[in-house]
């Protein structure tokens, strides 16, 4: 586990563009999109907020989750690359079971995503966006860990279905953008319900919505138990699917000819 986490950390340090791109996306939304609508849009008093808030403060938890969503997919993209180049064989010769190696890889990717999120929070702090209490930066950590693991496990499960690096980019677009926009990251669900009831239903079925709400409540020293249960359940399902898919005897890789690679 230490070796896998260290390898992922080195890859993250050497790929500085990955760190910059992870921050550019949410900062563009914060500095341009949210700032443009700051005086027009606002959010009424809904949990966990105790007062009327500005729009850029509302979308901050959604942008934090977006960082983890993109990072989870990029981390899974590296698994497709390692499988193509043969670097994954270095891990597979380990005497450890496959589930342990995948969990280690998942923890390494989640740790990187948490660093990126806190870098974003630091910039947002100087932009004037902060929780009601500084303790929010501490209480949000378990939520970031759980949501990062869930989104990383989802990407890991999807990576088992893709044999070529070029195909994974298309899969990412079909997963990332629908999950992000059909959620509560950019607008409250009650507002979506007023405009489109069927879209509100889709948002309620989207696990990314519950990852956003788990982070949102934790940032304000509260626990959304429904989101906690959904995120935990999805983590178990996605990780179980990834472990099964990467099983050399039963998973998708052997069915798609990946074992020969």
What's the topology here?
Blueprint: H1 2-14, H2 16-36, E1 42-43, E2 53-54, H3 55-85, H4 88-92, H5 98-126, H6 136-159, H7 165-181, H8 189-195, H9 197-205, H10 207-219, H11 225-245, H12 252-255
Antiparallel strand pairs: 1-2
**Secondary-structure-derived class:** mainly alpha
For the secondary structure, the number of strands is: 2
Task: Give me the number of helical elements.
Answer: 12
Helix content: over 70%
The overall average pLDDT, rounded, is: 81
The end-to-end distance, rounded to whole angstroms, is 24 Å
Which sequence of strands runs across the widest sheet? 1-2
Rg over CA atoms: 19 Å
Low-confidence stretches: 254-261
Walk me through this protein's architecture.
With 261 residues, this protein is mainly α. 74% of the residues lie in helices and 2% in strands. The protein has twelve helices and two strands, in the order H-H-E-E-H-H-H-H-H-H-H-H-H-H. The protein has helices at 2-14, 16-36, 55-85, 88-92, 98-126, 136-159, 165-181, 189-195, 197-205, 207-219, 225-245, 252-255; strands at residues 42-43, 53-54. It has a two-stranded antiparallel sheet with strand order 1-2.
């Amino acid at each position: 586990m230490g070796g896998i986490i260290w390898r992922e950390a080195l890859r993250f340090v050497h790929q500085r563009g990955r760190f910059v791109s992870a921050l550019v996306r949410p900062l563009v939304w914060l500095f341009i999109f949210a700032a443009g609508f700051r005086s027009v849009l606002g959010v009424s008093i809904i949990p966990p907020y105790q007062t009327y808030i500005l729009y850029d403060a509302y979308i901050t938890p959604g942008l934090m989750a977006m960082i983890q969503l993109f990072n989870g997919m990029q981390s899974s993209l590296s698994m497709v690359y390692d499988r193509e180049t043969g670097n994954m064989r270095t891990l597979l010769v380990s005497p450890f079971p496959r589930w342990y190696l995948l969990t280690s890889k998942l923890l390494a990717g989640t740790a990187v995503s948490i660093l990126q999120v806190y870098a974003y929070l630091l910039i947002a702090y100087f932009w004037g966006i902060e929780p009601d209490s500084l303790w929010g930066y501490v209480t949000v950590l378990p939520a970031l860990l759980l949501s990062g693991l869930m989104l990383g496990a989802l990407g890991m499960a999807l990576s088992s279905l893709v044999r070529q690096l070029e195909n994974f980019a298309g899969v990412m677009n079909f997963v990332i953008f629908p999950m992000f926009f059909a959620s509560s990251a950019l607008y409250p669900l009650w507002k979506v319900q007023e405009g489109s009831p069927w879209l509100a239903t889709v948002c309620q079925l989207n696990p990314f919505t519950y990852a956003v709400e788990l982070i949102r409540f934790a940032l304000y020293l509260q626990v959304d138990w429904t989101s906690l249960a959904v995120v935990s359940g999805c983590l178990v399902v996605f990780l179980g699917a990834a472990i099964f898919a990467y099983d050399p005897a039963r998973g998708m890789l052997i069915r798609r000819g990946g074992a020969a690679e």
